[in-house]
Amino acid sequence: MFKFKLPDLATAPFCPSEIQGSVVIPTNASFWKKLTLFLGPGLLVSVGYMDPGNWATDIEAGSKYGYSLLFIVLLSSLAGIFLQCLTLRVGLVSGRDIAQLCRDKYSKKTSIVLWLLAEIAIIATDIAEVLGCALAFKLLLGCTLPQGIAITALDTLLILGLKGKGFRQIEAIILGLVMTIGICYFIELWIVQPVWGEVLRGYIPSITKISETEPLYLAIGILGATVMPHNLYLHSSIVQTRLIEKTDEAKKSAIRMNTIDTVSSLFLAFLVNSAILILAAAAFNKTGNHSVAGIDEAFHLLDPVVGSSIAAILFGVALLAAGQSSTFTGTIAGQIILDGFLNLKIPCWKRRIITRGLALIPAYMGVKLLGEGSTGRLLVLTQVILSLQLPFVIFPLIRFVTDKQLMGKFTIRGVAKLISWLLFLVIVSANICLLYQILTD
Q1: Cα distance between residue 338 and residue 70, in whole Å
Q2: In-domain check, residue 1
Q3: Considering the entire predicted model, what is its pTM?
Q4: Which residue has the higher pLDDT, 194 or 388?
Q5: Where does residue 383 rank: exposed (0-12), middle (13-18), buried (19+ CB within 10 A)?
Q6: Cα 191 from Cα 308, distance rounded (Å)
Q7: Angle at alpha carbon of residue 267, lines to 261 and 270, rounded to 5°
């Protein structure tokens, strides 16, 4: 790894005085050497696909409908992989992230509106992280939920501890947290012994499985929780930490390597999300507990249902790891958005304090007003906010990746272009259905 002090593209999104370390990709390196150097950005993006917000929808879906909604997890993950691949293409070819391109291409008023929507999404994401971590502290330490929320305020110290660290070290920390989540769920699935034949049948798409109102609502929730708006801004920037030549051949190679990184990392996230739903289906649905709608309920029911105290502990540890890993990437994404839209650079720890401060207030007020049993509802609300914001980043992304003047020979066409717009329409339609369900509930 080599360290550089480069102009804003390579360093600005990552608080250059604090998190440095772009990686030079040698032109004459072997395929495997290049691949190891490119691995990392996809892992950071994958964290957003397994944050505490995903847990609430997957647990409720598994407990109520068994394995039948696994195909929604699969299709949502495929949509996420496709969109992230478009995002990395834009970042590598244009040398600009999506926020910067919005500032370049749109009017100042439009950029401000898009920035505000992106900031709302970042705060909603951080609220989910606050609630998830606070709930993990409550479950593992026995404290109250408000006390757990107060403890989450201390994670700013983690960001301060990263001062001066290289970006590869950040990726290594995230890898450790993601591995913790994966190992915990692997052990839990081994304990609960799901029926794997039924699991495989759950991945087969079926309209009839979501023909009724309630499963459709959950399916839309899974979609909204899986494809995260801030991940698209994040990915278009962090792929630029790999420094390549400006030739078309080098860009083509970089796109290929980053695609491998993205697909493999998001496949891991898909396995984790599947594991959450499978665990809920095997532990609760198959034992007659069809109304488990909260993470805290799942934690307390695992012991008597599974017959092993280790399952609940592993569940709590995985939840804490999910919340903390999301904290790192949320901070970086927030800095990218602030710098990209407003060309405003502030230290990462200040960004962390601002975002976490804005998240702590609604999280704490929500718990105090609605009670400690409201965590599940609050988590779902954050996912609704994220889902509503998603079209406002997907639309610019598609416009950029289909812009011949910007992308040149790397412009997407034909089937890829058609899939892009179909995905956009599906997500907009899902949002409309979700709003309808909320307003008529």
Answers
A1: 36
A2: no
A3: 0.83
A4: 194
A5: buried
A6: 8
A7: 145
Residue 97 lies in a domain: yes
By three-state DSSP, how is residue 246 classified?
A: coil
The amino acid occupying position 71 is: F
How many structural domains comprise the chain?
1
3 state SS of 8? helix
Q: Which two tokens stand for residue 108?
A: 């100042």
Residue 3 lies in a domain: no
Q: What is the CATH number of the domain that holds 19?
A: 1.20.1740.10
- The predicted-structure confidence for 112-148, as pLDDT tens digits, reads as follows 999 999 888 888 878 877 888 888 888 788 787 778 8
Amino acid at 104: D
- Over residues 188-192, mean pLDDT: 83
Rounded Cα distance between 299 and 320, Å, is: 13
- At residue 284, the 3 state secondary structure works out as coil
* Domain membership flag for residue 157: yes
Range 322-359 burial, b when 16+ CB lie within 10 A, else e: bbbbbbbbbbbbbbbbbbbbeeebeebbebbebbbebb
- Burial tier of 247 (Cβ tally within 10 Å: 0-12, 13-18, 19+): exposed
Q: How far, in Å, are 84, 271, 311 from residue 265 at the CA level?
A: 11, 10, 25
- Please give the residue range of the domain that contains residue 91: 8-440
- Token pair recorded at residue 117: 């929507």
